[in-house]
Amino acid sequence: MSIKIREEVLKWPNSFYDRGKKEGIEQGIEQGERKAKEQFARKLLQKGMGHAEISELTGLSDKEIIKLEDHNG
What we know:
This protein has three helices and no strands. By secondary structure, the protein is mainly alpha-helical.
């Protein structure tokens, strides 16, 4: 095995690790943004705002808002 090939092979585990780490960070950011939208929607529901307005402000679907409303009690 040539030195160049060996060096490339040794990089593989790190590239898989880095890709996984990057994907994990992106998923974490998406989950955080989602939770923030849901929290904002819950506050708007408590203020008596309608589903259409909440959907427009948060980007959540009517179905998602209803689900939040059901879990809000």
